[in-house]
Amino acid sequence: MALPAPLHRCQVFATPWPGVHGVRTESARSFGRHLHGTFGIGWLEAGAQRSASGRGQVEAFAGDLLAHNPGEVHDGHPLGGPVRRWSMLHLEPAVLAGMAGRPGALELVRPVMRDQPLRQALALALRRLLRWQPQGAASAVQRLACEEALAQACGLLLAGHANLAVPAPAGGDLARVRERLADDLLHTPSLDELAALAGLGRYQLLRRFARAHGLPPHAWLLQQRAERARRLVRDGSSLADAALASGFADQSHMTRVFSRQFGYTPGAWQAALQ
After folding, report:
1. What pLDDT score does 51 carry?
2. How many CB atoms lie within 10 A of CB 22?
């Protein structure tokens, strides 16, 4: 009687960035030696595994970060239990090299790492990517949120775990970025557009903008939209009209952002004024 096949579930998903895709895997399989043409960065969510790497055999446990370089031969075997679960982002070499912003042979220096800020950034990127819909009214603002999360994760990865770090921010015109966001709340720009306006790299822009304004561009834009909606409701607009005129996908999206920012719903605000 044939034994049942080991548990294996795998979900692959696209991202707003060409050359970047994600994978979530839960598996009891052992994987033989293989390689990828991409950089890989992710984390082990549950279980443990032992694997070969370009730096010898390594072990990883729940919460550890996993990484590989393009062409680096590795394998993977469950350790201490039959099933482990992990999530990975795969980046074409040109994507990560472009993020580094300087010439040279880029390489991630460790196959297993412990870095809580980077793990949190990767988890945020994954949550946003799984919610991202390429079509629809909310697509543009979701895209900016995904791009910001990816850029943040890549910047932390390069800063702490690569042989080429992101250059320190210098110069840049943040006023043009703020003006672009504030003057056209209905049309969400891409992170590339904002970076070009500032004359900075994507990760550099995020660091500089958050340092100057306390929030990254995506969160700052949503708060400006919520403030516009609050004024419109104050001046007599219906909730549906205020949502549309403030750039929200629909009234429920406005309500979620409004409530997070002000602590009360647009409906409560409207009722108080009446």
Report:
1. 93
2. 20
